[in-house]
Amino acid sequence: MSTDTNDADSDESSGHCSTPDSDGEVAEEIAIISFERKLDTAREIEAGIGDAYERVDIIEYHGDVFAEHWGEYDCFVGLMASGIAMRKTAPLLDDKWDDPAIVVVDEALTWAIPITGGHHGANQVAHDLSQLGAVPAMTTASEAAGKQGVESKAKALDTHVVNGDSTVATNLAVLNDELGPVARLDGPRAVLVGDDVTVLKRNAADGVVLGTGTVSGVKKAQVLDAWEAVLDDLNLEFSDVEFIATGTRKEGEEGLYEAAQEIGAGVVLFEKETLEGFEGPSPSRSKELIGWPGIAEASAIAGGREHDLARKKERFDDAVTVAVGR
Question: Which of 9, 109, 162, 191 is spaced 20 to 30 A from 115 at the CA atom?
Fold first, then answer.
C-alpha cells in the first residue's frame, strides 16, 4: 500500500499480521470442517497453513457443526461443496464485522473460495491456501480489481478499523481511484470525521519500523538476516516491529514480501514524493543514480511515529539496506 504522512502541526496530511479485534480484519483461529472421507486432505491443509495461525483445528462435519462452533473461530474452512456451507451458515449470519469468515475448498485443492468475510480473514486464508495449489477466487470488489481495500491497508499498517460502516464508501473510492493515500495524524489531537472517512487505530502502543531497500531478486533469507542484525543491535525482536516500510518501486519484490510474511508484518509502500520529504542523513547512491532518496532511511523516518531514526542505514550482503525508524 502507499502512504503519505506529515507531522501533527500540519493542517492536512496525505500519503499486511495484526491483532484480531471486534472488527475482525484478520483470522488467527481456524476450524477446518471436513467430511470423514476428506480428513486426509484436511490434515494436509492443517500442515500447510498451520504455522501461520495461532490455532488450526480439524472438526468432522455434522449437520449442526457450524452452529455449534459459531463464534469460537475467526474463520471456517469448509472442505465441502459451497452449497452445503452456504445453506448451513446463512441462518447464522448477523453482521459482517462480527461474523466469522468462511472459505470453501474442494478435495483436490483446486479452488479456495471466500464466501463471507473476504475482508475479514477469508481472503487472507484463501491466499494462504494457494501455497497448496488452490486458486484463491477473490470476489470482493477491490481485490477482484487488483486493488487494496481499506481493511487490507489496515492490516498492513498493524491497525484496525474503528468505524466499520465507513468502509462501504472508502472501498468504493478505492475502486474509483479516488481514495488517495492513508493520512496519519499524530496526537494529542481531536478530529471530526464524516461517515465516509475510515478511521484506523494502531494495535500496538509502540514499536519500530524497518525501512528496507533491496536489490532486485533478493532472497528471503538475506532480508531476514539483515533485519535480525539491526534489531539485535537495538536489543529488539521481530515482535517489536510495527511494519516494514519501503518505496513503491519495491512493490512485488518477492523476497521482501516473503520475509515480511515470515515475521508477521505488513509492507507499506511510500511514494517518491513522500520519501523526498523525509530524506535521511546518510548519502545515497539511489539519489545520484535514479533521483530517489535513500529508501531505507527515508521510509523508516516517514513511517515512524516520531519521524526519527533509531538506527541509521546499514547494507548487508550487498543486497539489503535497513534503517530503523521510531
Answer: 162
